[in-house]
Amino acid sequence: MNSPTHHLTHPPTPDTPYLNQLSGVEFSPVFIMGDHRSGTTVLYKTLVATHCFNFVKAYHIIKYDEILANHLNKAENQAIQTLEAHFKTLGISDRAIDSVIATPNLPEEYGFILKNVAGGESFITPQNLPIFQQLCRKIQYSSAPNKPLLLKNPWDFSHFLSVKQLLPTAKFIFIHRHPLHVMNSKLKAACTLLSQWDPYTALLTDQYAEIFNNPIKRSLYQLLHSKYFNLGLRRVEESSIATTTYFLENITALPPQDYISIQYETLCKASETTLQKILTFLNLESLTDLDYDSLIKPRSLKLLPEINNNANNINQKLQPYLTYHGY
């Protein structure tokens, strides 16, 4: 089902002696596809809570080079406990950008692993595909062997056709949110991460520390996301136009049986119905009773002045996407 693991030339790690055990490990990838700040995290967390899936957690990203060694030496629980203690030492309680409680078991984005291990892009490419396949096999090998692997990485939202070509068995769960709210959340998140040090993000991505601790780089990023000449607004607007246009132009190229689309707003209003629809699409049944309303709590939303003042103009530019989703 998946091509063999390529030979990866990297310095030895605790996992190196065990990599040969990944040969023949198969995985069934299910991708949550949505733009940054579109509700991918809440959907990921809720689907993981059904116990139907293997998934990428913060522990896998931070301790990527030890996943196999810890699993085979029955040291994974201890490693996670040690990491929890480290979180407390660093004063980590939640993700600064959205107040989601941060623990080593929090479902997270595989793009961090691609960037940290392979360098280059944070989305799947032919060049980093061997690393992606290795991380999937590591997680599948150290988790429940018969469960599908649930994956999330907003950087791949505007590359989903390439993902399908590289991983033909992939299934997709698209999540959409009103672009004004996506743009609003992106600007707030960027402002938060660039104005105050976030130790949780620093554990996940080497790039964050490089930017934050370099006064010139950090100032440049702050400028690009600022109100100055509406630079921040223009940046997130261009991004939303690009990603939504890509979706509209390419979604019909996916076989209908390989994807399902939902909206964040519907997920919040009709949580159980929406989640059941997804599980039915994947031929799965929840393995636990969930209180969906307690899992999905939409936060109150106040648009930033620069978003609010330009809302009509932005909506005009994004009209095809808004019409497609009935916004």
The share of residues in helices is 40-55%
Q: What sequence of helices (H) and strands (E) makes up the elements?
A: EHEHHHHHEHEHHHHHEHHHHHH
Strand content: 5-15%
* Lateral strand order in the biggest sheet: 2-3-1-4-5
Number of strands: 5
Globally, the shape reads: globular
Q: What is the tally of helical segments? A: 18
**Radius of gyration in whole Å, from Cα?**
20 Å
How would you classify the helix and strand content by structural class? alpha/beta
Largest sheet: 5 strands, parallel
Distance between the termini: 39 Å
Give the low-pLDDT segments.
1-8
Task: Give the mean pLDDT.
Answer: 93
Task: Give an overview of the whole structure.
There is one protein chain. The longest helix is centred in the C-terminal third of the chain and has 20 residues, at 231-250. It contains 18 helices and five strands. It is globular and about 55 Å long. It has 327 residues and is an alpha/beta fold. The two termini are 39 Å apart. It has helices spanning 40-48, 58-62, 67-72, 76-90, 111-118, 129-141, 160-166, 179-195, 199-204, 206-212, 215-224, 231-250, 264-269, 271-281, 292-295, 305-308, 311-317, 319-325; strands at residues 29-33, 54-55, 149-152, 171-176, 259-263. Residues 1-8 have low confidence and may be disordered. The protein has a five-stranded parallel beta sheet, with helices on both faces.
Strands, helices and their partners?
Layout: E1 29-33, H1 40-48, E2 54-55, H2 58-62, H3 67-72, H4 76-90, H5 111-118, H6 129-141, E3 149-152, H7 160-166, E4 171-176, H8 179-195, H9 199-204, H10 206-212, H11 215-224, H12 231-250, E5 259-263, H13 264-269, H14 271-281, H15 292-295, H16 305-308, H17 311-317, H18 319-325
Parallel strand pairs: 1-3, 1-4, 2-3, 4-5
Helix pairs in contact: 8-12
